[in-house]
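Regression check, zinc ion case 72:
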Amino acid sequence: MPRTLIIILFLILVILYSYFVSKMTHYECPKCGTHFDKNGWDLLKPHFFGKREEKCPNCGQSTFMIRHIGKI
Ligand SMILES: [Zn+2]
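Current build output:
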């Protein structure tokens, strides 16, 4: 298999994974404790160890949100 095809397949898998993870999770603001949902692509934001930088819709803080599995 050509190397470019393998890279394209890998990228598709990563994008699908991030799409389903973002569909199955929601976030909690560490400042005010608000739980909120984000319909976005995980890949487009910096994230590590289950946390992701987001802006809180309640208090407006831009910080690393705590990720929770499941819907609100
Ligand atoms: Zn907040």
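Comparison notes: The chain is about 30% helix and 30% strand. The beta strands are 25-28, 35-36, 47-48, 51-55, 62-69. No diff flagged against the previous build.
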